[in-house]
Specification:
The complex is a heterodimer of chains A (about 300) and B (about 50). Chain A has about 300 residues and is mostly helical. Helix content of chain A is about 50%, strand content about 5%. Chain A is built from 17 helices and 2 strands. Chain B is mainly α and about 50 residues long. Chain B has one domain. The chains are: A mainly alpha (about 300), B mainly alpha (about 50).
Chain lengths: ~300, ~50
């Protein structure tokens, strides 16, 4: 059974369930193919709905709105963002970070880059642990505080995260639009160069470190991580089946200590641990039982 | 016993968070905030693409 499971995961060049869902999500979220050819944005009503992942609404193919961009825009208008915050909480409480692992197109890009066979780096714990807190700083400072309160000389509150950091905007919006629109190319200056540099740094890091943006910088992941412990979607580890081989921890792209804290705020619910577990001790799904509180028979690890 | 209490507390927390999320989104819809999102999302965001 173990061999079958491992074969399924590794052998035959089969595309994993996670990858299929990631591709499907990327295509569905950016399904306006004509936009890429024309360099024009989709203007249908579906753009009033925020998607659960970081997907720039200035991507020519985007069919929905980016929740992080929308949150900053609402805050810039000095209004409490009921709608965007409500949707974000809804995604968070139902899925936790499942959206990061299965639905995020920028996560897919990082996953694919990490497949390229170059030496991989294991970030030392003394750097990794504090660096992971950076994403909370990004959320509080660049997404909430500055867009709400920092007004420029021209009297506007720019979306600071989108403007200075977001690599998804550069990859999905900036580059395709620059390719198709000569006027935008003329306007591009230092800021565009800066954003391309940020994108290149993140994409290059992705070759060596698994999902560096998700680990250290993504404000949406930071928001969802708050819900991971009690979201409706939970990961479960059956302690009676666990043989302590730690295959799950070695395979985890987010370096989560699966056997100690399976619903860690860092877990993106990608399911790698489940697929490599030799005894099938790990499962995930919508459940009444929550992290840290074992029920009879199966146990959710504290 | 303690386990059941914790389980119940977290179940209530989930339900509370879900209800709060639905109420917030509903309030936003009543304030027509989705139209503001739409208005922003159908125009090229110059900051997002690095022209800003």
């Amino acid at each position: 059974m173990h061999r079958d499971r491992m074969k399924k995961e590794k052998g035959g060049g089969k595309i994993s369930f996670q990858r299929k869902v990631q591709f499907l999500s990327a295509v569905l979220l950016n399904g306006y193919a004509a936009g890429f050819a024309k360099g024009k944005l989709f203007t249908g009503k579906s753009k009033a709905f925020c998607v659960p992942v970081l997907n720039c609404y200035s991507c020519p193919g985007a069919l929905g709105a980016c929740p992080v961009g929308s949150l900053q825009a609402s805050l810039a208008g000095r209004r409490f963002p009921f709608y965007v915050l409500g949707l974000l909480m809804l995604f968070g409480v139902v899925l936790g970070r499942l959206a990061c692992g299965l639905l995020c197109p920028f996560g897919l890009v990082q996953d694919l880059l990490h497949k390229i066979p170059v030496p991989k780096w294991k970030v030392p714990g003394r750097i990794d642990r504090p660096a992971r807190s950076l994403k909370y700083v990004v959320l509080l400072v660049l997404v909430i505080f500055l867009p709400a309160f920092a007004v420029t000389k021209s009297g506007v509150n720019p979306p600071y995260f989108c403007k200075y950091l977001c690599p998804a905007g550069t990859l999905g919006g900036g580059i395709p639009l620059m390719i198709t629109d000569p006027v935008l190319r003329e306007l591009a200056g230092f800021l565009f160069d800066w954003k391309v540099l940020v994108l290149v740094l993140i994409l290059t890091s992705s070759l060596f470190i698994h999902r560096p943006f998700c680990r250290y910088l993504c404000p949406l992941g930071a928001f969802y991580s708050v819900f991971n412990r009690f979201s409706f979607y939970q990961m479960h580890l059956e302690r009676t089946k666990c043989v302590g081989c730690k295959a799950c921890e070695r395979s985890c792209p987010m370096a989560v200590e699966v056997t100690k804290n399976i619903n860690s705020p860092e877990c993106i619910r990608c399911g790698k641990c489940r697929s490599v577990c030799p005894t099938g001790a790990i499962s995930g799904g919508f459940s009444r039982n929550v992290s840290g509180i074992p029920s009879e028979g199966s146990e959710n690890m504290p | 016993m303690r386990r059941n209490k914790e389980q119940a507390a977290i179940t209530w927390l989930r339900i509370g968070a879900l209800a709060a999320a639905v109420c917030l989104a509903g309030a936003g819809l009543m304030r027509r905030e989705h139209l503001e999102v739409l208005a922003k999302a159908v125009r090229i965001c110059l900051e997002c693409i690095g022209i800003g």
